């Protein structure tokens, strides 16, 4: 195996964001760009690893989007040139993000590269992404991603093995000297992990007794594994999982499971022929949307219900939870469950990597984010299919409908009325100006009215990790109105074009009486838009997506 050293001018824009490095696909396709980032990541990983980590497997998988297949070949060649002795590649290259985490953990890998831009559109004209996950199966922590960025700014050469491409569409092994590249069945390890948590026999009997559902895989990475488990193992009717074949452009869809982009599923669940349960997952399989007949379950309520019902309804959690966690902008509904059950509840910045330390330390079992992400300590990523199986287990055990389960929860704990407004594709400079002005005005906002409420506290969220004492600052601006209401404003780190401003509105009512979310939050929404001068700054103030 010959190794070639390629010289190039360093790139200055390879700083990983919340979920890795994301750019337009054509940007990744420019000469040296992907290879140099892989080399920078390998150099950074070397700083944090000792011993024979090069002997442990390196896992590679992706969500199947355009350019994944070519990128995988490049990663293989750079990894071989840098001394990795066992490279594991998912057959066809398609492996969901939680599936990748499961393989890393099961195979005791040193880490892995995930080729995904998550819920962002795919194709030549759309988005591509890559991130590195560490040996616990979770996203690289900030100290590693910052080391990758530091390496990338100084890097002037990378190594590449001059070998033939590997056939990634056929399970088997290819030897390159003492190193081997293994193409593996992506369904095996992940299925075993899920089977250890859920009572598949009970769920199979549930379907056999007439339970119906629709799962929209959105032509993305969850399709093959969802079809394998839901239809083949659990025995759901053929066609229960739709759009199950991954496509490079996700069939022209925006693979984000929400009310706007999963409209076909929403229409079905609000029709006269709706199945009993509806669900969808995103591009890389780490997000989920949960639906009942004419009923939408918000991500915060879904997390709270799962935490509340886990011990009684899900076999893998029958001994109870060690604790729960949520990202700061996520609805505080799960906090009420934690208080009632005497569990620790952690509030973290947005980004799944912050949950990893808590899980590794045994402090957190179930966690979630408002961006349709829920998961547990079985992997170190959010897991869309896991959430669906949680809901199936709760439905099978309680014999209630989705709406009845959530409404019963609200009557027990009270309800957090909640919405997330996504203002997408904003001009970057004005968006940064809005945040900067708001941040500077925080002390003067206390005591001011925000709709019908008075701001009692205003801050920019900062998090000190209870495990390693690392500090993450400027994680979202909070306008808090007593115990019952708050607004959170932050710029998202997952887009590739312009700025996405996310505004989160939340109001608590201890007595659930069936009020509409819009009625409960409307005044605060209008007041917040005026405070931020959205129309003046951007020419409009209506969000692109409301969750």
Write the layout of secondary structure elements.
Elements: E1 3-7, E2 21-24, H1 25-28, H2 33-48, E3 58-62, H3 68-81, E4 86-94, H4 97-106, E5 111-115, E6 127-133, H5 142-154, E7 157-161, E8 172-176, E9 179-184, H6 188-195, H7 200-208, E10 213-216, H8 222-233, E11 241-242, H9 263-269, E12 277-281, E13 288-292, E14 295-297, H10 299-313, E15 324-327, H11 333-341, E16 345-348, H12 353-360, E17 366-369, E18 373-376, H13 384-398, H14 402-413, E19 415-426, H15 428-440, H16 442-445, E20 449-450, E21 453-454, E22 457-460, E23 463-464, E24 471-472, E25 477-481, E26 485-491, E27 499-509, H17 517-532, H18 534-538, E28 545-546
Parallel strand pairs: 3-4, 3-5, 4-9, 10-11, 10-12, 15-16, 15-17
Antiparallel strand pairs: 1-7, 2-6, 5-6, 8-9, 12-13, 13-14, 17-18, 19-27, 19-28, 20-21, 22-25, 23-24, 25-26, 26-27
Helix pairs in contact: 2-3, 2-5, 10-11, 10-13
Written description of the protein model:
The chain is built from 18 helices and 28 strands. It has three domains: 3-185, Alpha-D-Glucose-1,6-Bisphosphate, Chain A, domain 3, CATH 3.40.120; 191-413, Alpha-D-Glucose-1,6-Bisphosphate, Chain A, domain 3 (3-Layer(aba) Sandwich), CATH 3.40.120.10; 415-546, Alpha-D-phosphohexomutase, C-terminal domain (TATA-Binding Protein, 2-Layer Sandwich). The strands form seven sheets. The chain has a seven-stranded mixed beta sheet, with helices on both faces. A six-stranded antiparallel beta sheet has the order 22-25-26-27-19-28. The protein has 547 residues and is of the alpha/beta class. The termini are far apart. The relative contact order is 0.11.
């Amino acid at each position: 195996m010959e190794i070639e050293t390629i010289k190039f001018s360093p790139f200055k824009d390879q700083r990983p964001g919340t979920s890795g490095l994301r750019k337009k696909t054509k940007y990744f396709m420019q000469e040296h760009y992907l290879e140099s980032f892989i080399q920078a990541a390998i150099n950074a990983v070397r700083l944090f690893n000792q011993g024979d980590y090069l002997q442990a497997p390196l896992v590679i998988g992706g969500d199947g989007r355009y350019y994944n297949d070519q990128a995988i070949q490049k990663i293989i060649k750079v990894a071989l040139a840098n001394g990795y002795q066992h490279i594991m590649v998912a057959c066809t290259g398609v492996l969901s993000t939680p599936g990748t985490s499961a393989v890393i953990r099961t195979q005791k890998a040193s880490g892995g590269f995930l080729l995904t831009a998550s819920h962002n559109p795919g194709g030549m004209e759309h988005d591509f992404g890559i991130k590195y996950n560490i040996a616990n199966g979770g996203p690289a922590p900030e100290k590693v991603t910052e080391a990758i960025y530091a390496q990338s700014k100084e890097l002037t050469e990378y190594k590449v093995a001059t070998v033939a491409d590997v056939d990634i569409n056929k399970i088997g092994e290819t030897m390159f000297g003492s190193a081997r590249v293994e193409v593996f069945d992506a369904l095996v390890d992940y299925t075993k992990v899920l089977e250890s948590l859920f009572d598949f026999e009970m769920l199979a009997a549930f379907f056999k007794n007439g339970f119906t559902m629709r799962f929209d895989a959105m032509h993305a990475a969850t399709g093959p594994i969802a079809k394998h488990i839901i239809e083949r193992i659990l025995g759901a009717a053929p066609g229960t999982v739709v759009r199950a074949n991954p496509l490079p452009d996700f069939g022209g869809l925006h693979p984000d499971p929400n009310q706007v982009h999963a409209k076909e599923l929403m229409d079905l669940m609000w029709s006269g022929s709706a199945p009993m349960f509806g669900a969808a997952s995103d591009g890389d399989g780490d997000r989920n949307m949960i639906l009942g007949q004419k009923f939408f379950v918000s991500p915060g309520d879904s997390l709270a219900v799962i935490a509340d019902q886990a011990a009684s309804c899900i076999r893998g959690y029958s001994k109870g939870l060690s604790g729960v966690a949520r990202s700061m902008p996520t609805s505080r509904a799960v906090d009420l469950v934690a208080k009632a059950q005497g569990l620790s509840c952690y509030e973290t910045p947005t980004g799944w990597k912050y949950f990893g330390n808590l899980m590794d330390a045994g402090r957190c079992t179930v966690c979630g984010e408002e961006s349709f992400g829920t998961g547990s300590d079985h992997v170190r990523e959010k897991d869309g299919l896991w959430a669906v199986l949680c809901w199936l287990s709760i439905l099978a055990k309680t014999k209630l409908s989705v709406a009845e389960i959530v409404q019963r929860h609200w009557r027990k704990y009270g309800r957090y009325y909640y919405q997330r407004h996504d203002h997408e594709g904003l001009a970057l400079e004005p968006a940064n100006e809005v945040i900067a002005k708001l941040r500077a005005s925080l002390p003067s906002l206390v005591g001011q009215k925000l709709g019908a409420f008075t701001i009692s506290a205003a801050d920019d969220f900062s998090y000190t990790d209870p495990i390693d004492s690392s500090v993450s600052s400027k994680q979202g601006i909070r306008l808090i109105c007593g115990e019952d209401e708050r607004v959170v404003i932050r710029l998202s780190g997952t887009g590739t074009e312009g700025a996405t401003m996310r505004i989160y509105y939340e109001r608590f009512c201890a007595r659930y009486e069936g009020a509409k979310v819009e009625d409960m939050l409307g005044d605060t929404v209008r007041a917040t838009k005026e405070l931020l001068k959205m129309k003046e700054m951007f020419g409009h103030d209506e969000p692109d997506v409301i969750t």
